[in-house]
Design goal:
This protein is mainly α. The protein has helices at residues 2-13, 21-43, 57-70, 80-85, 95-116, 127-159, 166-184, 192-215, 217-244, 257-262, 271-293. The chain is 69% helix and 0% strand.
């Protein structure tokens, strides 16, 4: 846990360049220059700004990079050492809230394992089974952060008071889980039955989690913490299957472009690298939610800077 807290703190202190205000200012400046160039070409054909190469190729490339990155919320980008150091951890169950949260996760996991044919044994799961499990898992994992962020946003408006930094962290988590889904969707095209199952599950889970969050936010964050522990366990076994099981080709198969962009992976990154990055994200969510579950509703978010 300490490693991931340190990772998050370091990442928050040194965000990639495109998250800094100077990056956004550069984008706006370049956009303004392009607009001025087009306007000048229309009104005054011989004006210096109408010259075709008024912006250099590097300027235009910089603008494209900034535009592509501008819509993505902050998320950690990991070093190879941090990815390798990610491991499964479990927070001891203490008290009634922890017991309720952990029991619900165990119940959900049992049903999910049964419905997806999941097993912890290496070499049994096929690529299709892994993708079914991962894609379905991420459709569920993206719900809690959005529900919690929305609920706290409305609470802040309703009570006319600050939220103390929780909303951003929760929305970052929700988007991060959605990016996991979009990445693995590049490897799988779900059929009609799968999509209907997702639709039904989301309808039930969203509303149930929303009601529970209204009643006991801290229990819900503890639930997510335990749920993410389970996710780390799943992705660890997936990495083992890549090494020794029936999906060894993920160790050489090229990573989707969306993953290379989002996690700033190298040009030759593989699906295995993506799985390792996703596991690190889940470990980050695990530690974050366990800490949020230990705070009072009005305490400042320690991850907000």
């Amino acid at each position: 846990m300490l490693m991931h807290l340190t990772t998050r703190a370091r990442a928050l202190a040194s965000r990639p360049a495109f998250y800094h205000a100077v990056g956004l200012q550069s984008l706006r400046r370049l956009q303004s220059t392009l607009a001025d160039t087009a306007r000048a070409a229309t009104l005054v054909p011989n004006h210096p700004k109408a010259v075709k190469d008024a912006l250099t190729v590097s300027d235009q490339a910089q603008m494209k990079d900034l535009k592509n990155a501008d819509y993505v919320l902050f998320h950690p980008v990991y070093t190879p050492e941090e990815l390798a150091a990610t491991s499964y951890t479990h927070r001891s169950v203490t008290g009634i809230r922890d017991s309720i949260a952990y029991s619900l996760v165990r119940l959900m996991r049992f049903g999910f394992d049964f419905s997806t044919g999941y097993t912890d044994k290496v070499g049994i799961m096929t690529e299709r089974q892994w993708l079914n499990r991962i894609v379905f898992l991420e459709t569920v994992a993206g719900v809690p952060g959005m529900v919690a962020g929305m609920t706290r946003h409305m609470r802040s408006l309703r009570l006319l008071k600050r939220d103390y930094g929780w909303i951003h962290t929760l929305l970052e988590e929700a988007e991060n889980e959605r990016m996991h889904l979009l990445t693995f969707m590049k490897l799988k095209n779900p059929g009609a039955l799968f999509r209907l199952t997702v639709l039904f599950t989301q309808g039930v889970f969203f509303n149930a989690y929303f009601l529970c969050y209204l009643l006991s936010p801290m229990t819900c964050h503890r639930f997510v913490g335990y749920l993410e522990e389970s996710a780390v366990h799943t992705y660890t076994l997936c990495l083992n299957d890549i090494e020794h099981g029936r999906i060894k080709h993920w160790g050489t198969q090229a990573a989707p472009d969306i993953a290379k962009f989002y996690w700033r992976l190298g040009e030759h990154a593989t699906v295995k690298d993506v799985v390792a990055a996703v596991r690190a994200d889940e470990a980050d969510h695990r530690d974050t939610n366990h800490i949020l579950a230990s705070l009072k509703v009005d305490e400042p978010n320690p991850f907000a800077k």
